[in-house]
Amino acid sequence: MADREPVLKVENLTITYDTEKGPLHTVRNVSLQIAPGEIYGLVGESGSGKTTFARGVVRYLPSNGKITTGRISLSGTDLATLSHKQIRKVWGSRVTMVHQDPNASINPSMLIGDQIAEAMRVHLGLNKKQAGQKAIEMLNKVRMPDPELVARRYAHQLSGGMLQRVLIATAMATNPEFMIMDEPTTALDVTTEAVILDLIRELMSEYNTAILFITHNLGVIARICDRIGVLYAGELMEEGPIHEVFRNRLHPYTRGLLGCVPRVDASKKSITLSSIPGFIPRPNQLPPGCIFAPRCDLVEEACQLERPPLVEIGPSHLSSCRRVDCLRTRTKEVEQAREERIEELGPVVLEARNIKKYFPFSGGLTALVRGKKSVKAVDDISIRMRSSFTLGIVGESGCGKTTLARCIAGLEEATSGEIDLEGEHLDYSVSRREPAVLKKIQMVFQNPDASLNPQLPAGYSVARPLTLLRNMSKKQVQERVKELFAAVSLPPDYIDRLPHELSGGEKQRVAIARAFAADPVLMICDEPISSLDVSVQASLMNLLAELQGTAGTAYLFISHDLAAVRHLSDWIAVVYLGRLWEIGSAEDVFVPPYHPYTEALLSAIPIPDPDIEQDRIRLKGSVPSALNVPPGCRFHTRCPRKIGAVCETEEPPWREMEGGHRICCHIPIDELKTLQGGGLLKKAGQGGNR
Fold first, then answer.
1. pLDDT tens-digit series, residues 493-550
2. 3-state DSSP helix/strand/coil percent for the chain, to nearest 5?
3. What is the DSSP letter of 282?
4. Are 391 and 573 in contact (CB under 8 A)?
5. Concatenated DSSP letters for 107-165?
6. Measured distance CA(594)–CA(322) in Å, rounded
7. Cα–Cα distance, 250 to 330 (Å, whole number)
8. What is the layout of strands, in order, in the sheet containing 95-98?
9. What per-residue string of b and e applies to 275-288 under the rule 16 or more CB within 10 Å gives b?
10. Which of 52, 570, 635, 640 has a 20 to 30 Å separation from 513 between CA atoms?
11. What is the C-alpha separation between 397 and 659, in angstroms, rounded?
12. pLDDT per residue as tens digits for the range 236-251
């Protein structure tokens, strides 16, 4: 694509925000170009300037933002010189955008078909009938099931994956020259994400649109992009073809980002993830030399004196590091090996047997006619956990993972089943549990903002369980709070800071410190790292592993990031539509996956290595409603390995394997092993098994 005339050509772009403290140059002298049909991935931590750059390119900045230097050419048109009236004609016709949250982009009061048609009536001049027909055609293009029916629905009647397809259909409707995709799959579970990424690739080959793809997920970048740009504190650190950059990593920041990503073939027992120390500098506090120097493990005196330029170090491969030769000689993998430790089975901490949680469904007159129905959110799940043990729970959105965790914590009252903690029977409701029991189970949630009081210092949140559950004196509380902040690597002065003065990762560290304050035997971690940068994720995963080794706490770890689950978990439970389908050690479940559902989940994981080829197994349709569970094997409606009528009419049996590994499937174990062949992941050129 390098020999083709670029659709977008950005030269020395600098974007400045006017603030009370003076001008902030948030993006500085960035140059890049994107060819027709090319997907250019832009990566970097939060605050690196990715979204500001993208909005600046299309002149969609807030009132205090402006382009101070540079040229932006869109197929020969200099966007930087257009008037506001002229640029508005470009938006939606020649340039479109797909955002992270479709709910923030779709009008909840308009029919889906009318919203797609509106873009074509405004920008293509089609009449109402033509635009309506074209809207259904675009829904077909994005492989929307029942497009005519979907066109007559509202946003609240569609799933997250369907809404993202609507956004893509709207963006592609005017056949734009250039499209910005800003974290378009971050909020989706892994199977939906895989389908959306496949769809984007197919549409780009058909429409030949140039795409700027922004994400913090390096696995997604490796799967979908042709070239990559690594942005740090508003400047481009490295750029080049996707295979070249991932293979060689000739900037310490690129190497650090990739070292933060957990691998599906390694666990917390074997490696410590390589987190990047420190934080991105503010635009008004940039160091005098290389802006990455304060966080770089290769820094030398010259790096701190002079800012290195972005220069070509290979065919179409650019880097702004003066120590490229040193990087060439370093090994590719940067994770640190953990010291081998003897694994001993601790005492049983939690035993949950045959847990069910049915929610009564009140559907008005229809429910009265058809009789009472229940939403079977959790349907007969049993798990057992020991101290210093992590059980990872995986499955698509809505499968019952969080409901099971809430039943164990007592936040939801189980419909039936038994829950024992350290051999003592627990009441279903948290309100009827004794304080001595309450302190033994703690939770860390996805969003620390929702669990920290914004009006009180961080130290107060950590001190509260010490006061309520452990009856410590004021002096003891103060000392213990200092110890907990040190344990989660936060300095003492953070104790008096308000939550808004902390970063997302720092707030999550406070939430972890608060959970450990009660000295729990079981900690429930519900998506604790999913909304954070890869560098922050790595440091928190290392922290959780270290604290577990010290305190012996058992973790129930819930996440849609299967690589993170693989890294942290000793055992993994696979849940679908309220039922358990496979459970065993992390290695047994992942290498290779035996159950067809586990196989599909792992096939969808975006691997941060473009040289790895994955077998593509895509599940059709959405998870059925827990109100109308399919008969027989409830996975049969989507199963790529369904063997016949037995799957549709009979419950599958549990099949025992070595080491306590169990799967629930009609297909015999030997046949599943044969179907798996050599596994899902292979180096490029080795070919697939299907």
1. 899 999 988 878 889 999 999 999 989 999 999 988 877 788 888 888 988 999 998 8
2. 35, 25, 40
3. P
4. yes
5. -TTS-HHHHHHHHHHHHT---HHHHHHHHHHHHHHTT-SSHHHHHTS-GGGS-HHHHHH
6. 48
7. 10
8. 95-98, 178-182, 210-214, 39-43, 227-232, 235-241, 317-319, 311-314
9. bbeebbbebeeeee
10. 570
11. 29
12. 999 999 999 999 999 9
Map tokens 């650090």 to a residue: 256
Look up the pTM and report it: 0.86
What is the tens place of the pLDDT at every residue in 23-59?
Answer: 999 999 999 999 999 999 999 988 899 999 999 999 9
CA 556, CA 466: separation in Å to the nearest integer? Answer: 22
Instruction: Give every CB contact of residue 547 below 8 A, 6+ residues apart in sequence.
Output: 487, 488, 512, 516, 553
| Burial class of 643 by CB neighbour count within 10 A (0 to 12, 13 to 18, 19+) | middle
Q: How far apart are the first and last CA of the chain?
A: 30
Residue by residue, DSSP assigns 612-669 as: EEE------S-PPPTTSPPSSSTTTTT-TT--SHHHHHSPPPEEE-GGG-EEE-SS-H
Residue 379: alpha-carbon gap to chain centroid: 27
Name the more confident of 653 and 264.
Answer: 653
| Cβ count within 10 A of residue 615 | 18
Sign of CA dihedral 661, 664, 669, 671: negative
Q: Is 583 helix (H, G, I), strand (E, B) or coil?
A: strand
Q: What per-residue confidence (pLDDT) applies to 272? A: 80
- State the residue for tokens 């903002």: 449
Report the SS3 class of residue 27. strand
DSSP code for 168 = H
- For residue 30, the SS3 value is strand
* 599 sits in which H/E element: helix 596-603
Q: Are 604 and 193 in contact (CB under 8 A)?
A: yes
Could you give phi then psi for residue 486, rounded to 5 degrees?
A: -65, -40
* Token pair 């000793």 in the structure block, residue: 570
How many contiguous H segments (helices) and E segments (strands) does the chain have? 23, 28
d(CA 316, CA 196) in angstroms, rounded, equals 29
**What span, in angstroms and rounded, lies between the C-alpha atoms of 428 and 408?**
8
Residues with Cβ within 8 Å of 227's Cβ and at least 6 positions away in sequence, in order, are 38, 40, 41, 239, 240, 241, 242, 316
Tally of CA atoms within 13 A in the half-sphere of 400 that contains its CB? 30
Count other C-beta atoms under 10 Å from residue 629's C-beta: 15
Omega before 36 cis (within 30°)? no
* Contacts (Cβ under 8 Å, ≥6 apart) of 630: 624, 636, 637, 648
